[in-house]
Specification:
The protein has 83 residues and is an all-alpha fold. The chain has one domain. It is 76% helix and 0% strand. The radius of gyration is 19 Å and the shape is elongated. The chain starts with 7 loop residues before the first helix and ends with a helix.
Length: 83
């Protein structure tokens, strides 16, 4: 999967600038984004403060770590039973 160009905090910042009344098309194009991408991000992050976006990212990372641990345990128990 391709790495996003902007992290969650930056995305929220761009959306906040666009919502404050700056010309949305200029703000979006200035950051190299399309209207479709901005619409998707607005649906996902609409109205979130940057601190909440940071916490959301940390929770996603922690959940990914837990998922890998559970997968490793399942793989280990499957191999130990088959022996």
């Amino acid at each position: 999967m391709r790495k996003p160009r902007f992290n969650d905090e930056q995305t929220v910042g761009i959306l906040q600038v666009a919502e404050r009344g700056a010309a949305a098309s200029e703000t979006i194009r200035g950051h190299g984004r399309s209207r479709e991408t901005t619409s998707r991000r607005r649906r996902k992050y609409g109205g979130l403060p940057a601190s909440i976006a940071t916490r959301l990212r940390a929770l996603k990372e922690a959940n990914g770590c837990r998922s890998r641990v559970v997968a490793d345990q399942a793989r280990h128990s499957r191999f130990s039973r088959s022996s």
